[in-house]
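Before relying on records like the one below, remember that each one covers exactly one chain. Contacts with other chains, cofactors or solvent are not represented anywhere in the record.
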Amino acid sequence: MMNKRKNNCGFTLLELVISVSVLVILTGVTAPVFTKYIEKAREQRYITEAKSVCQAAQLYVIDSEMNGTPISQEMLSRVLCEIEVSSKSHVLYPYLTRRATMNAEIKWIFITNSRLTGITYQVKDYEISVKTTGEVKIVNKEKPNTPASAGTVKGGNGTHPETIQETE
């Protein structure tokens, strides 16, 4: 009598279909979670970048005053807000420790009692307000349900349009 031995070396088609469908379901469940993590990491990077730009602007103002060239509100608005921050010709370029994101720019500067008190930094779909007190507010313009929390501000009379005088 011949002893027939069945040699099962592979998978059946049914086992392969079930394995692939389980992987597809797991991928579908975990993909949104990873997307949220990536978005949060991007927000944190932009916030850190905005804080660095705010500190660089403060250093620029301090250096200018130390060199004996006080900067008016109009001049400060002009030099900080006219070109993108990542440009090598921007006045803050020497003060930044690393390059800013391409097309990022300072949209507004906040001035109280002739002192720079904060900036609004725009990068991609985000608008980040950074105050010298450490307060940070971020608005994602892509998501309309994100509330924009802003303080009471008024336009600076006769100043550059990007300059905002804070009311106290």
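Helices lie at 13-66, 73-81.
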